[in-house]
Amino acid sequence: MKREDRKIYNLIYSYDSTVSSIPERKIPLQVIFPECEEDIVEIVKDSNKKGIPLYIRGSGSSVVGNSVPVEKGIIVSLEKMDKIKSLSRVGRLITVEAGITVEKANRYLKKYNLFIPGYPASYKFSSVGGNLASNSSGLLGIRYGILADYVKKLRIVTGSGELLEIGYNAQRSSIGDVLKGLFLGSFGKYGIIYEATLGLLPIEKKVYEYTYQFDTPDTVLRFINEIYGKGILPIKMEIIGNTISDLILNRNEYYMIIMTDKRLKGVKKVEIVNIRTQLSPILSSIRKHKFSIDLSIDLQYFNEFNELIEKKKDENIFIGYYGHIGDGLFHLNICFDKETDKVREVKNSIFDFVEKVNGVISGEHGYGYTKRTWAKKELAANIKYLRRIKGIFDPNNILNRGLDL
Question: Which H or E run contains 55?
Fold first, then answer.
């Protein structure tokens, strides 16, 4: 590769899918593509000797800057490690490399009527390793939980270059895998997940999808209670808030999309079902800037959440949400042309609300770089312990330097 081409290549890999600006972003010295365990160990050990930071990348689908280099270092992309290593059909276990997408693995599993559950909406292009490092989840979480719930075993290279195997090739374990939780959702700070064994489930034989419209947040909550009261746990329960439906459809209503294995009364298909998957790019186009928060709250505060949005929106700031209401997880989008004091006040009011109701500022994407300020506040009591753990697995602070709390 020519020198000029390499510069362009490095520039491209300095970005991920984050919309928000990251002023500290640096162009990497190099992008390396390991193809096996030995490659990763060699890269990490060499980095420790030279003191050069490594920024771990899956497929670059993070929307909060989880893999953006903020110091001069090397990007380690696991995209070439995308193989299926083994499958136990009767044991419902699959072992995959970290660079594979859930879509590729599930395409292989379909002939056996099995699938990996708990995957994020980005399953077609995001990597399993990145999903696990970010503790990602998606549209089917109400029924199936999150991808991390199905992790049986992890293989990891720590920040000091040591090999670590956590868990077993077994569906259940009550010993020995307590460390798993340290690496799931750690954003590559402690080690590089390069292989995972995941539990599988049979594919649902028949599912039904319905759409419902509501005038108020309170009627939404009453409907959800009716669903649960019938003993039904949907496969998917999505919502589109009234400000977004008003923007796109000129209808100031709340739309819900429910998928279940039970027949219900409802409209089976409307325009809003197709629009749901396009909302993020649509909202990115209505103003120069879009700030997104994937907050998660107890649904008993849903009315208060909507009241806050109505209070804070104005002609210069669009505020709207969609998300996984069955889990109380909402993708709140603040769209604006200029970062003003009013915009900052709106952002802070949202985070203050989440803190007040003991919710979490990220239920799906992680805090990454763009939400570090608020994450430091939310996790203030835990940070000293997290830093001690970092020191054990990555004593030279090689992995994702500058992205930690």
Answer: strand 54-57
